[in-house]
Amino acid sequence: MSALPPIIADWFTEKGWSVHPHQLEMLARGNDPATLLVAPTGGGKTLAGFLPTLVELAEHPRKGLHTLYISPLKALAADMRRNLTGPIDEMGLPIRVEDRSGDTTQTRKKAQRADPPEILLTTPESLALLLSYEDAPRMFAGLERVVVDELHALAESKRGDQLMLCLARLVSMRPDLRRVGLSATVEDPPALARFFMAGGCPVLTADPGPDPDIRMLTTQTPPPWSGGGGAYAIPDVLEEVKRHKTTLIFHNTRAQAEIFFHNLWLANEEGLPIGIHHGSLAREQRQKVEAAMVAGELRAIVCTGTLDLGLDWGDVDLVIQIGAPKNVKRLVQRIGRANHRYNAPSKALLLPANRWEVIECQAALEAVLARDLDGDPRGPGPRDVLCQHILIVACSGPFDEVELFNEVRRAGGYAGLTRAQFDEALDFVATGGYALRAYDRWQRLKQRPDGLWQLRDPRAAALVRMNIGTIQDTDTLKVRMRQNRKFLGEVEEGFAASLIPGDTFLMGGKIVRFESLKEMHVDVTNDKGRKPKIAVFAGSKFATSTQLSARVLDLIHRRDLSALPSHTQDWIALQREVSHLPEAGRILVESFPHDGRAQTAIYGFAGRGAMQTLGLLLTRRMETAGLGPLGFVATDYATLIWSLHPVDDPAFLFSRDDLVAGLEGWLSENALMKRSFKAVANIAGLTPRNFPGTRASGRQATFSSDILYDTLRRYDPDHLLLNITREEAMRGLIDFGRIEEMLERTEGRVDHMVLDRVTPFAAPLFLEVGKVPVDGMGREALMEMEAERLMQEAGLA
Amino acid sequence: MNDHPFTFAGADLSFRPTGALFWPAERLLVVSDLHLGRSERFARRAGALLPPYEVQDTLTRLETDIDATGATTVICLGDSFDDDAAAHGLDDSVALWITRLMAGRRWVWIEGNHDPGPVELGGDHRADLTLGPLTFRHIAAPGAVGEVSGHYHPKARVAGRARPCLLRDDARVILPAYGTYTGGLRSHDRALTMLMQPGAVAVLTGTRPLAIPMPR
């Protein structure tokens, strides 16, 4: 099947297009059980994935579902429908293409189950939902191929694990099912292939294309000492927008995107058409921006990760990354968004938001040119996803535990799952676990006399279906205009709760005034002011990767710093002179007084998550040592701790055994753990987020998941969900792995500098947001002093 | 001991960091707003899923306070149960536990707004109770003197930390909620600033009671 049938070959000729070598190669491998195609953005990956389907259906027309296409984005599925329908109509092929996602109407969804199209384009969550219906085997009866798009992105989250479990299930229904995975350039393709298929599969790598044209954006004013928005560079960015046809301006967080967009508009005197696109905006608004973009009506879009993937916009000729990219792989993928044409170099500019990021941007830029991608190896498939999968399977009908166990092990991430682990998950799904055994709502499965498992109450299927998926949005409230109820977007519940009437914040680039909080809605009105209170969206705060951190450390020690702007060169030189430069094989600790407190700055370069954890662990050690720690703040590079008493000899802080012991004790009562637990409890079905009819407010849900956490800790410390939470936290939020990496790298070699004032590298730490207060003797002492002072002043003591 | 001693309406009282009030001369312990069974009430309404362990937590603390003070009289100042149904729906083991605590001492249940009906447990059930100079009732009555009440779950903040607190002035004492997982009302709230005289003191619970001028 390596030749194109005339009907398709003619169409290519007519368009004046030629088929890429890797596309033909994919056609040649059309009958292989599994292939992973790794190609740069713009490499015609999706066509390569679909060609075998088009050829098969052109040569042997048939009815019924033939190919399932799965993408991480709903928008991508919809876009793909347009992209496929065009050529299919022009070739006159008898193929029906439909998309299906959470946005598809109920009527159409029903029709699709009764009479599926030949090609169905969908998302992992919609597929999981389809598999939860009893008629799933009928719907997928004729399925031949599955194409998974943006596999690299799916593999980074639990959505990928859920999808792989679903594929394993599809294979049980259709043993000869063939699968193709499409991925952007990744650091370890064989590992991705093993995730895609237990045991791995052949990898086809397309020509990576020419080097990108990538530089740091030189600005009129140097970047500030701290902060993230990049607002100082608005005029420079606007200049670049004017000079290019279409610019994508990437931000790391939604809040920063909003603020930047707002400031860009204020400076946009020529009224250039500029849009904004991020995950908290109303769908209609995002679609409007996407449509304007496709029509070539926009000169720039301020965006976040929502535009990392997908949508083919050939006209983008510049990508600007605001803020350090944190991770080289993602930067490469973002850069690929410019010049979405194969074999044309992409043009990108990096804009550091503060002084540290100048160094990090330079390091990242060098890594991109060296094609040195980073990434952490993937852990085994998360078991909370498995719990949800068991529930989904139970919804579709009675199941045999041995068959399901074997099926699950065919999913890449679960190849190493033991029977005991599986049984534990099954027991949790069936009973809720030891401490919750007495509660009806968590008794969900029962074993029938014939040994099969089924839902105890078939009506529970509705609740399971409503809660399918692993995407953890923070609890959000919808924002709407008070006058016309127009939906503007969403804000976090915690943020909404902090608002008082009259407060202003940014939403979709507009300043709005908070009026009232009604049920699940934040009512706002337009505000003519110019200074909003900042909207706190869930900004994904990625940690700088290990490889990039190593490059940063390497960079500051170079004899020749001329790659960096002069202000940054001066800053590094001053630090060397006043204190000491952090080194890869040593931990630098600076002690100095400031603001009436003893300050300790620790340069560990282990990434934000790990440095945060280090702050928590070290303050515990300091508490035990009677130093009265009061709080800390962490960045990707350093942790700053303030306390009542100074640290005289920091070496004792970094004993690995003590840190591990501290971790055990501390893990349990930590707020990060509760946040992790909440996600795990949601995914595993312990605390559903959505209920038929009423919806528990996010706050209630938070409350209950926190309390469940405390309860399980006390009465059932080995509960499955606690174990999952612990494992995840160690890798994710807590990132203890990187603390261990730091300890191995430095082996207790500590450079301790005792100084009489703030050092150049420490200064930005004082401006960081996200300070974490520490409760302990220090705080208690402060409270007592404060109470005494208040009583004295009031004349009551 | 870490208690906060004070004289009120001629009685020498002692506020414990747990949130209980002790009257040594009468060997009388007062706690307010236990809200036993709150989790079950929430669990009955769709949505929040509170496990029932808060009952055990609250009773463990109460038992510790009774043992530590050697109280012979215990007054529960209302809202002891989260609602009528919770009182009936108590676990056998919990009911037994309460009965064990009640054994050998005088036990007074003051009616609250959450549990107005009779409780299926022993002890006295009263709308209010006057002992010597002090009157115990659930909700503070305007113009009362020598009154000890609860209901509002007051809390206050010092050096950035908010904690449940007792409020006191010359005429009345308002106790914090003793139950685990009860919310709180900041002492700034009008309901409380209207009740309390100028010069009122807030005493925060915690490892050690902390007295501050009542934040208004």
From TrEMBL, chain A:
Record keyword Isomerase present: yes
InterPro entries with a match to the protein in the record: ATP-dep_Helicase (IPR052511), DEAD/DEAH_box_helicase_dom (IPR011545), DEXH_lig_assoc (IPR026362), Helicase_ATP-bd (IPR014001), Helicase_C-like (IPR001650), Lhr-like (IPR017170), Lhr-like_DEAD/DEAH_assoc (IPR013701), Lhr_WH_dom (IPR045628)
MF term (GO), any: ATP binding
GO biological process terms, semicolon-separated: DNA repair
Superkingdom of source: Bacteria
Gene3D superfamilies according to UniProt: P-loop containing nucleotide triphosphate hydrolases (3.40.50.300)
Every Helicase C-terminal domain range: 233-386
Keywords: ATP-binding, DNA damage, DNA repair, DNA-binding, Helicase, Hydrolase, Isomerase, Nucleotide-binding
Start and end residues of each Helicase ATP-binding domain: 26-204
PROSITE patterns xrefs: HELICASE_ATP_BIND_1, HELICASE_CTER
Family: Belongs to the Lhr helicase family. Lhr-Core subfamily.
Protein name: ATP-dependent helicase, DEAD/DEAH box family protein
Source organism: Maritimibacter alkaliphilus HTCC2654
From TrEMBL, chain B:
Molecular functions per Gene Ontology: hydrolase activity
Ranges of residues in domain Calcineurin-like phosphoesterase: 27-123
Domain of life according to the entry: Bacteria
InterPro entries referenced in this protein's UniProt entry, alphabetically: Calcineurin-like_PHP (IPR004843), Metallo-depent_PP-like (IPR029052), PdeM-like (IPR026336), Pesterase_MJ0037-like (IPR024173)
Name under which the protein is recorded: Putative metallo-phosphoesterase
Originating species: Maritimibacter alkaliphilus HTCC2654
